[in-house]
Amino acid sequence: MPYDPSWPDRFRAAAESLKQVGNPQWTVEHIGSTAIPGLSSKPIIDLAVRIEDARDFQRHRPALEGDGWRTGSSVRTHDVMLRERDGTRTHIAHFFASAVWNEVNQRLFRDWLLAHPTDALRYQEVKRLAVEDASAGLGAYNAAKTRIVQELVDRARAERGMPAVSVSDK
What we know:
Distance between the termini: 25 Å
Helix content: 40-55%
Order of helices and strands: HEEHEEHHH
Oligomer: single chain
Radius of gyration: 16 Å
Number of strands: 4
Largest sheet: 4 strands, mixed
Number of helices: 5
Shape: globular
Strand content: 15-25%
Strand order of the largest sheet: 1-2-4-3
């Protein structure tokens, strides 16, 4: 859907809630397409949460679940919790240990798109074309999207002197 100017406010509310229910010391950042002003996106707010380590997450997980967050993602590289409203996903919180925070691909990708509007438009166009080709299915959409994400994350990592790594975390 077209960019919604309410997305930053929805992010701020979710970030504040995560910190109040979880750990007030957590850093929470807006990631994903909804974090890029003007970019079309699925209306799901993605959040990157900097935690101390896995024990920090596990200590606060019951309170997060009590606040409506649930597990259920196929992501294997880090903990993820989801929030839904009326059966529709509204938020995805990705929990990253502080030791890897500066290397998180989702943060690097967001920063790249913010700094390179032409690449943001390329990414948007790839997603739009993949959605238009509904006959190809979700697998084709994800494959098309992953190719450009990999390219741009590779460039972002190279610019920071980091080696390329797979963006696939499933």
